[in-house]
């Protein structure tokens, strides 16, 4: 708390000219050579393709009432606690570790991944655009070079091995930015990049110089360092390193950028994802979980089967963000966006059978709506390599690229549904309806657009193979009255455990079948309402999710985006991955070895002690920063 107060004094002295508030949730860490964990079967078996199916949790006891009424207001003005109006672009975006860029986006600017473009086009069709952050742990040592062999935009450089993390540094050419620029010219993707902070005496600002020059308005912000509060523990800094030191480094960065004629715009620094070390109260955080033991032998073993029920109720999202409510308020007052910079089901790659399940899709939509209700402006879902379970989408392994296509994860369906829920009017407001007397298994939200009731989102987390737990939700609009009929789109699967999901009857296809386009017929269900009794009765399966449209919404009739990118021209060549699997395995935002070091080794030292034990879970502190001063939002 004292530190927090000092921070505030230190930082709030100047007014931020332009800033974006961020915080992340999934640690991006590693301290050990990948080989030490390479024998882990989760790597060789390619987690992204795991087939594990968990047992659905039992029906809650007592079960939620399966018929209940939700009283809605027609006018937003009459709704208490409604969120602020949502800003442009999709609420959910993606966080992409630099080392997987070539795998996911493309080898170089002339070989962009077509399935990726189609997936972005589908989000754009609904939400108008997509935010993507390229960065993370691997941004710290990333180094710009003029040329890389074989037409690659990005590669690793063993010679630049980081002595602390033993990570080969990522090297990249201008073509990295051309990849991004080319993507932005085809679909409305806006980018965040990260400035390397490993060497603040010799700033490497190519990412600002070249990134701004090449990306122009498509670059939204530059992240100033990644998790500086862990620098000491990671041996990235020696002696002491406090918020003051970081602040001074940022001041130095700002001055250096100011003096650099090659940086067109100095007003786009973004505060880093900072972990809890500088924020005592942040250590008691509630992020969903981690799978570090299974992936890296760190921390306590966690059984996905036991974790599963924790995701399948409304409290999961509420608890996760409870401590940020003050911060979103401060950010809103300051007129700043407030972005969850990196999140997903669990750190260290997520859980097999859980992170790719229909249950996870329900969890992410509920969590996203809860964040929107709580005045977050965006949340970026993490995308890793082949060794993680939670990917929204996964490009095929290098040597399968000619015969297998992409694989979609449950989380991508959540981003699609969320895009549809909030739409592109920039006026959507969300309220948690605390439906069914607040039963945590049957949450509901109302969405207002242009100040009027637009949609209702209904969840049923209960998994029941009999019809006994199906819901029949009565929606009623006192005063205004219900319309003659409503349209409903369902996100459906037979069980929370399954991976084959449909949205309004359409699917992207199974493992290796995805080209980024929805397949099948769009199925929009018409439900007649009883205007006399002022009620629309909406069935929701157990498990199930229903999006109820009141009146015309521009997202109602959207299925597959009319904008698609043909795969034929590219499929044979485009999937060539050049950053090797070892790097992908440990540098895409899921290794948490540094966490363990916090608990197990003296600060600033990294004596090679790999007997890592205590896993210290932490959440990044959010804050934003701008030229001429720092603005910190502390909770
Ligand atoms: C929504 O906001 C974005 C920028 O935040 C803007 O580009 C877009 O035009 C806005 N859409 C509408 C309908 O105002
Ligand atoms: C991309 O890679 C291909 C194949 O290696 C190469 O032919 C092409 O010249 C490269 N493009 C760029 C912009 O480097
Ligand atoms: C893609 O990038 C290359 C540079 O490698 C550029 O020549 C080309 O015009 C770009 N294409 C588009 C569509 O922007
Ligand atoms: C920072 O990283 C770069 C690239 O890996 C390396 O060349 C440089 O020596 C590093 N600086 C420090 C102080 O570690
Ligand atoms: C979100 O912002 C709105 C508008 O300022 C406010 O009324 C509401 O209380 C906020 N919600 C939360 C959870 O802080
Ligand atoms: C693909 O690469 C993996 C790992 O390098 C290897 O085990 C596998 O046999 C390869 N598959 C094919 C079809 O070449
Ligand atoms: C989903 O997959 C399960 C298990 O593979 C299968 O039994 C079920 O029929 C599938 N459901 C749909 C709707 O395709």
UniProtKB/TrEMBL annotation:
A molecular-function term among this protein's GO annotations: hydrolase activity
**Regions that span the bilayer:** 615-634
Its domain of life reads Eukaryota
Alphabetical UniProt keywords = Hydrolase, Membrane, Signal, Transmembrane, Transmembrane helix
Enumerate composition-biased segments (Polar residues): 597-607
Leader sequence range is 1-18
For this protein, the record's InterPro entries field holds:
GH, GH79_Enzymes, GlcAase_C
Segments for region (Disordered): 588-607
**Record domain Beta-glucuronidase C-terminal: where:** 444-547
Q: What is this protein called?
A: Glycoside hydrolase family 79 protein
Originating organism: Crucibulum laeve
């Amino acid at each position: 708390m004292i530190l927090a107060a000092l921070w505030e004094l230190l930082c709030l002295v100047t007014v931020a000219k332009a800033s974006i508030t961020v915080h992340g949730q999934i640690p991006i860490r590693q301290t050990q050579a990948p080989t030490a964990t390479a024998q882990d079967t989760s790597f060789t078996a390619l987690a992204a393709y795991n087939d594990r199916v968990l047992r659905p949790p039992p029906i809650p006891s007592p079960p939620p009432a399966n018929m209940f009424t939700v009283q809605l207001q027609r006018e937003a003005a009459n709704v208490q606690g409604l969120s602020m109006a949502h800003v442009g672009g999709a609420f959910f975006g993606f966080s992409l570790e630099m080392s997987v860029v070539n795998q996911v986006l493309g080898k170089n600017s002339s070989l962009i991944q077509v399935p990726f473009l189609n997936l972005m086009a589908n989000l754009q069709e609904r939400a108008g655009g997509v935010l993507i952050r390229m960065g993370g742990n691997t941004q710290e040592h990333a180094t710009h070079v003029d040329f890389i062999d074989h037409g690659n935009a990005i590669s690793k450089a063993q010679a630049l091995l980081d002595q602390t993390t033993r990570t080969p540094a990522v090297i990249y050419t201008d073509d990295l930015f051309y990849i991004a620029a080319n993507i932005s010219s085809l679909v409305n993707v806006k980018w965040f990049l990260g400035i390397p902070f490993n060497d603040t005496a010799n700033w490497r600002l190519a990412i600002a110089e070249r990134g701004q020059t090449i990306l122009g308005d498509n670059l939204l912000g530059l992240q100033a360092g990644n998790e500086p509060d862990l620098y000491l523990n990671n041996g990235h800094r020696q002696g002491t390193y406090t918020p003051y030191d970081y602040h001074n480094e940022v001041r130095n960065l700002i001055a250096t950028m100011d003096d650099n004629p090659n940086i067109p715009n100095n007003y786009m620094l973004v505060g880093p994802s900072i972990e809890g070390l500088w924020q005592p109260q942040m250590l008691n955080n509630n992020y969903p979980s981690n799978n570090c033991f299974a992936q890296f032998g760190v921390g306590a073993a966690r059984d996905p089967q036991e974790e599963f029920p924790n995701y399948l109720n409304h409290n999961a999202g509420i608890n996760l963000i409870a401590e940020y409510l003050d911060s979103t308020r401060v950010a809103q007052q300051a007129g700043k966006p407030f972005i969850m910079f990196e999140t997903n089901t669990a750190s260290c790659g997520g859980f097999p059978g859980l992170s790719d399940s229909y249950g996870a899709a329900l969890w992410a939509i509920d969590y996203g709506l809860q964040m929107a209700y709580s005045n977050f402006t965006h949340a970026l879902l993490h995308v890793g390599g082949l060794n993680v379970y939670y990917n929204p989408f996964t490009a095929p392994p290098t040597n399968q690229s000619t015969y297998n296509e992409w694989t979609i994860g449950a989380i991508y369906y959540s981003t699609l549904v969320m895009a549809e829920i909030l739409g592109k009017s920039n006026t959507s407001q969300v309220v948690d309806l605390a439906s069914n007397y607040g039963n945590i298994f049957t949450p509901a939200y109302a969405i207002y657009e242009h100040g009027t009731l637009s949609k209702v989102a209904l969840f049923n987390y209960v998994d029941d193979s009999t019809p006994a737990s199906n819901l029949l939700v009565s929606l009623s609009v006192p005063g205004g009255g219900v319309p003659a009929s409503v349209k409903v789109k369902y996100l459906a699967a037979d069980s929370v455990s399954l991976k084959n999901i449909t949205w309004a009857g359409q699917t992207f296809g199974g493992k290796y079948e995805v080209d980024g386009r929805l397949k099948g017929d769009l199925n929009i269900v018409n439900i007649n309402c009883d205007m006399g009794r002022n009620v629309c009765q909406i069935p929701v399966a157990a498990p199930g999710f229903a999006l109820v449209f009141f009146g015309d919404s521009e997202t109602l009739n959207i299925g597959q985006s009319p904008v698609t990118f043909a795969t034929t021209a590219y499929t044979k060549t485009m999937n060539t991955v050049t950053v090797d699997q070892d790097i992908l395995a440990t540098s895409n935002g899921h290794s948490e070895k540094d966490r363990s070091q916090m608990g197990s080794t003296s600060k600033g030292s990294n004596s090679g002690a790999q007997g890592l034990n205590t896993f210290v879970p932490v959440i990044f502190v959010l804050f934003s920063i701008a030229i001429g001063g720092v603005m910190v939002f502390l909770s």
